[in-house]
Amino acid sequence: MRIVFFGPNGSGKGTQAALLKAELKVPHISTGDLLRAAVKAGTPLGLQAKAVMEAGKLVSDEIVLGMLEERVAQADAKGGFILDGYPRNLAQCAALEDLLARIKQPLDIAIELNVPDQAILSRCEIRFKAEHRADDDPAVVRKRLEVYRQQTAPVARHFAEIGKLVTVDGVGSVDEVFKRILSVLPRGGEMWSVQFAPRVPA
Ligand code: AMP
Q: What is the rounded distance in angstroms from the CA atom of residue 117 to the CA atom of residue 125?
């Protein structure tokens, strides 16, 4: 199954995507993780991406697409994948659709985790105190929420227009949210979620 999983940083998408990976036995491909690995390894692309990531802005479409193409070409992604953090804007969305058409792996569903900004700000503050990730700094989180609204929300609208978006309430315990996600997954070609009409975000 091929899933695009998105939601603002701090919406819990990383945790939920990891659970989903265990459930569906397909790789969890996070462009944020791929970029952080490149930064850590000190590759030329990682060095370019570092400052942009620390400022809460988006890394160039070209860099991210190159990394993604390499990753989905790996053997473990042949049977599907959970894409986390991509696409982040409409240009990336078009690039993804091209890529999936080329490799004949059409997308099954786009899942958006919906969490109010205030809840995201407090979650990130807690994580910032515990893990000291520069991009969890409250000023950076605010910037990322703004980028999400401006650039990523149109992607959600696009998936809604083509009938692929399901918005899941991301407020609640990890288990509660995971159950909601499982309940909207397509099964055997049919949406489990007939009772959950895709919702176009505001
Ligand atoms: P994430 O872990 O998905 O929140 O990603 C962390 C940071 O990596 C983001 O704030 C961006 O700077 C960068 N990043 C991750 N995915 C993308 C993407 N698809 N396009 C551009 N930048 C990205």
A: 12
CA of 189 to the centre of ligand 1 (A): 31
Residue of 29, 58, 72 with the most ligand 1 atoms within 8 Å of its CB, for mutation: 58
Question: What is the set of domains in the chain, with CATH numbers?
Answer: 2-26+81-186 (3.40.50.300), 28-73 (no CATH)
Phi-psi region of 132 (alpha: psi -120 to 50; beta: other; left: phi over 0): left
Using CA atoms, how far apart are residues 70 and 65, in angstroms rounded to an integer? 9
CA of 5 to the centre of ligand 1 (A): 13
Q: Whole-prediction pTM value?
A: 0.86
Q: How far is 176 from 63, CA to CA, in rounded Å?
A: 35
Model pLDDT for residues 78-116, shown as the tens digit of each residue: 999 999 999 999 999 999 999 999 999 999 999 999 999
